[in-house]
Write a structure and sequence with these properties.
The chain is an alpha+beta fold. It has two domains: 3-31 and 173-416, Transposase Inhibitor Protein From Tn5, Chain A, domain 1 (Alpha-Beta Complex); 49-147 and 429-476, no CATH class. The protein has 16 helices and eleven strands. Strands 1, 2, 3, 4, 5, 6, 7, 8, 9, 10 and 11 form an eleven-stranded mixed β-sheet that branches. Helix 15 crosses helix 16 (463-476). The protein is globular and about 80 Å long.
Length: 507
């Protein structure tokens, strides 16, 4: 569709909406937009050396609640090294790996330079009880290369299970679990460093690239916390597909869904995903697990559904709703129970489609001389629930639009955090191990950032700079720690207690 026809169509719909509002056929609901509190524009807002020390002490006390339990989980792994040659115990090496990502080290060389010559050895001795010297990053890489490739991910899954079953989690999230799913490019090379790497532009020597790709799932909680869940790496190999086709996101989604069903159960999950997953098999998989979903629907997907929707919305004129979200006008149209047939067996699905045209005036305050301009954007989704006037705003704006959170998290992890795009090792097994340690560190930093103990520092400095300043003190200045030793044990029924953290309630 050309821009002129699209503009003509949008103008006609805008006039129709106006007539519906004036005639009373459509009700207008006003929803107050909750904006994030902005930091004050002030001079001398830094907390100073004393404030940094207090921030570091608060951060390390919170680490004391979480890290020992995680070390208990990791200590259950089998150590593939020769016991006669082992200098650093397995928990110590794994703790070093977690500290790498907690402190946002960009590479193994940087970890050797910064952590190896820092005062963090007091922290490791405080946590482990016995300590000799800080291990080398290559020692960690060799250890991860020899450990079972799925063992670390299984231990992280156990950590998530403990958190979900805790009383703290039930207070934060008493209802359904909102799971965001999306794939992310990790890193690429011009040569095949491993046979399991995916390839793009095969046959074109100048453009051919080999890359690692991960399908990530994240848990979005009502108070704004976004926690990493399970990861499904996309990798080639005969064990995955014997017909020579590469692995892809839709295949990885099926594997990820089976793991999520074991972890989160059935009937209590709402899946939010982009338009790549708007396919019959994936929708059927969600329905078989009794999962609700909000999936973006692109204009070139499910053409038969779009044709039925275009015809039905001309007849179902009552299926319309207009709302103001902040300074934005939202015009909703929907149609329920659209029949969709797919596959060689002609399987039938009943789909609910909803669209939203959002209009607002952009003031352009930073562009001198440019007048305010009207902006407009278009959204469409597939919904597992029947859309009504009562739930359309919640489904679209509060649930489906939450998908941008996982996109922003990828940007943070790649540009402002623990270097998601860095491989840390060309050994495929070690690369996945480093990725799991990154998730442990990400989980810890998110939990700490939302703790009530950190509120004053987060409000003043922000999450990113609070963590960076805390680690600057820990690495180069050190903090005075109490000499309470911690002994690893596997017999504790409750390995990690989240009740001591006092996580912020729902805003």
């Amino acid at each position: 569709m050309s821009k002129a026809k699209r503009k003509e169509r949008q103008d006609a719909e805008a006039v129709k909406v106006m007539e519906d509002i004036l005639s009373g056929r459509v009700k207008v609901g006003i929803h107050k937009k909750v904006n994030k509190r902005a930091q004050s524009n002030r001079v001398g807002g830094a907390s100073g050396t004393q404030g940094h020390n207090q921030l570091a002490e608060c951060y390390i006390r919170l680490l004391r609640f979480i890290l020992p339990g995680i070390l208990v989980l990791i200590s259950k792994l089998g150590d593939p090294r020769n016991e006669a040659k082992v200098i650093h115990p397995l928990p110590m090496v794994m703790l070093y790996g977690i500290l790498m990502f907690l402190s946002h080290m960009p590479s193994r060389r940087a970890a050797n330079r910064e952590i190896g010559g820092s005062k963090v050895d007091g922290l490791m001795e405080w946590l482990l009880g016995e300590f000799r010297r800080i291990p080398h990053a290559d020692t960690l890489a060799r250890l991860l290369a020899g450990i079972n490739e799925n063992s670390l991910e299984e231990q992280y899954e156990e950590l998530i299970r403990v958190f979900i079953k805790s009383d703290t989690f039930r207070e934060i999230n008493p209802g359904r679990l909102l799971v965001l799913i999306d794939g992310s490019h990790k890193f690429s090379r011009t040569y095949m460093w491993d046979s399991r790497a995916l390839s793009r532009n095969a046959g074109d020597i100048e453009k051919e690239r080999y890359f690692a790709y991960m399908l990530e799932s994240m848990l979005l909680l009502p108070n704004g916390m976004l926690l990493p869940l399970l990861t499904e790496p996309m990798e080639n190999g005969e064990s995955l597909d014997g017909n020579g086709k590469q692995d892809c996101e839709t295949k990885a989604f099926k594997r990820l869904a089976s793991h999520l069903a074991k972890l989160l159960g059935k009937g209590c999950v709402t899946v939010v995903a982009d338009g790549l997953y708007a396919t019959g098999p994936i929708i059927s998989l969600c329905k078989n697990n009794a999962w609700e979903f909000m999936i973006s629907l692109k204009s070139d997907c499910l053409k038969s559904v779009w044709e039925d929707f275009d015809g039905l919305r001309k007849i179902e004129t009552d299926n319309a709703y207009t709302a103001y979200w902040g300074n934005r006008l939202q015009q909703y149209r929907w149609s329920n129970d659209i029949e969709y047939i797919y596959g060689n067996n002609h399987k039938k699905l009943s789909l609910n489609v909803v669209e939203c045209i959002e209009t607002w005036v952009e003031q352009n305050p930073r562009k001198k001389g440019k007048p305010p301009s009207e902006q407009q954007t278009y959204y469409a989704w597939l919904s597992s629930k029947k859309v009504t006037e009562q739930n359309v705003f919640e489904l679209c704006t509060q649930i489906a639009r939450g998908r941008w959170r996982i996109e922003n998290r990828f940007l943070t992890l790649k540009r402002q955090g623990p270097q998601y795009s860095h491989c840390f090792s060309y050994n495929w097994n070690a690369m996945k191990g480093f990725h799991s340690l990154m998730k442990f560190a990400n989980f810890i930093n998110v939990i700490i950032s939302f703790s009530e103990y950190m509120t004053q520092y987060i409000n003043a400095e922000g999450i990113r700079y609070s963590i960076e300043k805390a680690w600057k003190v820990l690495l180069y200045d050190g903090v005075c720690l109490e000499s309470d030793e911690f002994t690893l044990t596997h017999d504790n029924r409750k390995i990690i207690s989240f009740s001591k953290l006092k996580i912020k309630p729902v805003v």
